[in-house]
Amino acid sequence: MTLPRIAVTMGDPAGVGPELCLRLLRDAHVRSYCHPIVYGDSALLRRIADHLHWPRPDPAHVLDLNAINTQSVVPGRVMAECGAAAYRYFTQAIDDALAGKVAAIVTAPLNKKSLHAAGIPFPGHTEILAARTNAERSCMMLTADAITCSLVTAHVGYRDVPQLLTFERIVDVIELTADAMRRLRGRPPRLLVCGLNPHAGERGLFGDREEERIIVPAVAAACAKPIDVSGPLPPDTAFLPKYRKDCDAYICMYHDQGLIPLKALAFEDAVNVTLGLPIVRTSVDHGTAFDIAWQGVADVSSLLKAVGLAAKLSGERPV
Ligand SMILES: NC(=O)C1=CN([C@@H]2O[C@H](COP(=O)(O)OP(=O)(O)OC[C@H]3O[C@@H](n4cnc5c(N)ncnc54)[C@H](O)[C@@H]3O)[C@@H](O)[C@H]2O)C=CC1
Ligand SMILES: NCC(=O)COP(=O)(O)O
């Protein structure tokens, strides 16, 4: 039987991505259902394997893009060369996925400061994907058994959030999330939408009536589709256990509104999925963890979950 090929991008060479890829390649369960291929630098993987006294990776599972001078990499350091290399691994993987050469992409973390230092005009993977695949609409969703959150806005400063909240964008994120969760759960999902302001604005007492003007009409439009969605809920109580137990996914207005509860509840297990693309892309939920890079102590759970979900979403593994 031919196993599906899954591109696993190595992420920032100075972060925990390379050692997590080394761990992943040694995982017998992963290799039982897919053929992972690390898009990265062979010499760097060998350098870290030797440093940690781990086995070197099987060349059959590495696509050597030779994007960086391995000896120049300092673990835990922001380096433009590392940002450029991480971008190179990722764009090659996107192009290969669009060409049907791999069934899905899974990304190890890149460092946004290094990416920026390299002059790449995107904050992160999600925005690169949307541009390179010409996706009309897409969004970031992080999912775990305990909690799932989709983000209406993501890598922007707080002061920009209110202007970015539109009726259309909120309806899009609700629809993309409902489609994804229907697929994952095998039934129509229940979604909850968070308000933007404290106490969901308390009828205009806080904020600029974003709830009444934008969020309430968007929820009503999504209900009419019909999607089982309600809100906006006051964000401070939306994540109480009594709401979580009946909620398949939350629609959150900004990055930390969703990612604080998600990481508090499920840091080891959560997977980042980009919805709305013509290709499947999943990722770890964590960053480059420069404080522990190349020490061999980084937890590989999120990467293993990300590969499992990518295989599932690409139809190569039963849901
Ligand atoms: N998918 C991606 O490419 C992501 C990239 N990032 C980027 O990563 C960089 C660093 O971000 P931070 O905010 O410092 O978050 P971080 O997730 O890298 O680190 C936060 C804390 O979690 C710990 N940690 C992270 N991953 C771990 C793992 N696998 N095992 C054990 N402990 C782990 C770190 O040691 C640190 O104490 C930033 O440039 C950020 O933008 C952040 C999130 C996702
Ligand atoms: N906090 C999530 C995150 O930063 C992931 O971003 P991306 O690189 O997957 O777009």
TrEMBL record:
Residues annotated as binding a divalent metal cation: 155, 199, 255
Catalytic activity, EC: 1.1.1.262
Cofactor binding, note field: Binds 1 divalent metal cation per subunit.
GO annotations of cellular component type: cytoplasm
Pfam families xrefs: PdxA
Record key words, sorted: Cytoplasm, Metal-binding, NAD, NADP, Oxidoreductase, Pyridoxine biosynthesis
The keyword Metal-binding belongs to this UniProt entry's keyword annotation: yes
InterPro entries to which the protein is assigned, alphabetical: PdxA, PdxA_fam
Protein purpose: Catalyzes the NAD(P)-dependent oxidation of 4-(phosphooxy)-L-threonine (HTP) into 2-amino-3-oxo-4-(phosphooxy)butyric acid which spontaneously decarboxylates to form 3-amino-2-oxopropyl phosphate (AHAP).
Assembly notes: Homodimer.
Designated name of the protein: 4-hydroxythreonine-4-phosphate dehydrogenase
